[in-house]
Amino acid sequence: MGGLEIRELEAFLVLAEELHFGRAGERLYVSQSRVSQLLRSLEHRIGAPLVARTSRRVSLTPLGERFLAGLRPAYDRLSATVEAAQDAARGIGGVLRVGFQCTAHDYLTGAIALFEQRHPGCTVEIVEIPLADPFGPIRRREVDAAVVLLPVEEQDLVLGPVFSRQPLTLAVSARHPFASRASVTAEDLAGTPLIGVHDVAPTYWRRAQAPSHTPGGVPIPAGPVVKTLQEGLSLTAADRGAMLLCRSTAEYHDRRRSIVFVPVEGLPDSFLGLVWRRIHGPSRARAFAETFTSARPGAES
Questions:
Q1: Does the pTM exceed 0.90?
Q2: Which residues form the HTH lysR-type domain (predicted)?
Q3: Which of 11, 64, 66, 154 has the CA that lies 20 to 30 A from 226?
């Protein structure tokens, strides 16, 4: 490969995802000028531009699109091969930080126990991550992997095992008209504001947690937005809006007398998924995903 530098490839892959030199530099922990330097070196090595740059936007050239399509799977295979060799040489050790949203699912805690049994040299720390920022802690390397609510469409993250298929419930104040009902339909949501998630999270993810329309196309009023589950539950108890939650989270918080959890018919089920960084993701995270998969009864994927 003529002395090809892996750092140049990583810079191109991250830039292709971000389409912004500054954000690419932040993810790679280098300056914006260093990203430009790495890209220029790669383009010189190839002999043609891979990225089109103007004062307002960054985009891939047609050659850059083809190069990305071939490079991504090759880079992933190369990374997996190197990490597998590292694991075989030194074993899995150190500290694995696993984030979770809402509640620590029983399956998660069981997988952690099995992982520590299989890898006694590695300790797992569990970290709660904000409802409104499912992917930020992973990108900032505050956690190595995280269990988050689906959907996940982030190109820089790997979506591993998917589990915990759950029907949705609607959290409402005990004073709300729905509180006395055995269930509500998705179309009933048009009559009450839904508490949403702060815009730190991507739009597609926020819309999945608090849809703007019923399946029939009727608008759903937007309620206040929150950063944490506890904020949402407090606003629900104050009758400031209703909040969609999976059944297991509802059952965990069902001790609150001020909130009633009503099953919702006609909405897609909720899922959880384990995610980690695609580039520079720790081998411990991949090993944990393997344990997660093998420990999971009735796997959904």
A1: no
A2: 4-61
A3: 154
